[in-house]
Write a structure and sequence with these properties.
125 residues, mainly alpha, 5 helices, 0% strand
Length: 125
């Protein structure tokens, strides 16, 4: 998640700074940059939550990754119709990475967190 978020940060900056332009409508570099920034933020939150290994890590990771998949599909739709080949290649390359991540999270077993000192003490008494 963090890797894809980092690529989205770079892509967003490139779009919003005017370094990337599409061929024609419906492609809009500003809209792409904003969408990429939003997806990036969601993935950063998801990655941080998963890294923290809290009880909600898996559901948050699934929602964040699912959101990114939907965003990439929408982005691919616009990019395929009005973007350039590198933009299309970016979406086509990272979409399977996101799908694989989603499937991995979906199939992962919930982790058992180590018991806190208080819960261990309660069980001993």
């Amino acid at each position: 998640m963090a890797f894809v978020a980092a690529t989205l940060a770079v892509a967003s900056a490139a779009h919003l700074s005017g370094h990337v332009h599409g061929r024609s409508a419906p492609y809009d570099a500003d809209h792409a940059g904003i969408a990429e920034a939003i997806i990036c933020a969601v993935l950063v939150y998801g990655a941080a939550t998963v890294r923290g290994a809290s009880a909600r890590a898996r559901p948050v990771g699934l929602v964040a990754t699912g959101f990114a998949i939907i965003g990439f599909v929408v982005g691919l739709n616009f990019t395929a119709r009005g973007g350039h080949l590198p933009d299309v290649a970016y979406h086509v390359t990272l979409l399977p990475v996101l799908v694989a991540l989603f499937v991995t999270l979906l199939r992962a077993r919930p982790t058992n967190h180590p018991a806190s000192a208080e819960s261990v003490a309660e069980k001993l008494h």
